[in-house]
Design brief:
The protein is an alpha/beta fold. The protein has helices spanning about 25-40, 60-65, 85-100, 110-120, and strands at about 1-5, 10-15, 20, 45-50, 50-55, 75-80, 105-110, 125, 140.
C-alpha cells in the first residue's frame, strides 16, 4: 500500500510504503509520482520504507528501474529505510543509479535524517488525494 503526502511550502513529496514492497507497488509508486509531478511540477521526494514489512521483488526488477532517470532532475530524492534488508536494497539501487551515470538518491535510516538532509526546516505533509490509484495499493495520509 502507498500513502502520499505533500509539503507545499517546502516542495517535498512524501511516499510512504506500507506492508509489502513488490513490483506492483513499484508501478503504483511510479504512476503516483508521474501523475503528481505532471499536476504540481517537480519537487523533492522522500520514499519512506519505515512501515514496510517485507520485500517481494526480483533483484533484476530493481536494477532495471535503477537505469531509468529520476523524474525530477535537480531535486533531491531520499530513501528512508531503517530495516537492514531494505537499507541494503536501497543502497544497491543507489549504486546502480550512480554507476549508470544518473543522479542517485540519498539513503538514510530515519525521517529526521531525511529532513536534516534537505535542510528546509520542519516538514509538514498534507494529504494527497490518491483515489485515482488502485484502492488496494494507495491511501491518503
Amino acid at each position: 500500500m502507498l500513502a502520499v503526502g505533500f509539503d507545499r511550502q517546502r516542495n517535498v513529496l512524501l511516499l510512504t510504503l506500507i506492508d509489502t514492497f513488490d513490483n506492483g507497488t513499484l508501478a503504483v509508486m511510479d504512476a503516483a509520482c508521474a501523475t503528481f509531478f505532471d499536476a504540481e511540477g517537480p519537487s523533492h521526494a522522500i520514499f519512506d520504507f519505515t512501515s514496510t514489512q517485507k520485500v517481494v521483488m526480483a533483484p533484476l526488477s530493481l536494477e532495471r528501474r535503477a537505469h531509468k532517470p529520476a523524474m525530477c532532475v535537480g531535486f533531491e530524492r531520499i530513501i528512508v529505510a531503517p530495516q537492514p534488508e531494505l537499507h541494503a536494497l536501497a543502497e544497491k539501487f543507489r549504486l546502480h543509479q550512480s554507476s549508470a551515470g544518473l543522479p542517485a538518491p540519498h539513503v538514510v535510516n530515519t525521517m529526521a535524517e531525511a529532513g536534516q538532509l534537505l535542510g528546509l526546516g520542519p516538514l509538514v505533509f498534507e494529504p494527497v488525494d490518491t483515489s485515482w490509484l488502485d484502492n488496494s495499493k494507495a491511501k491518503v495520509v
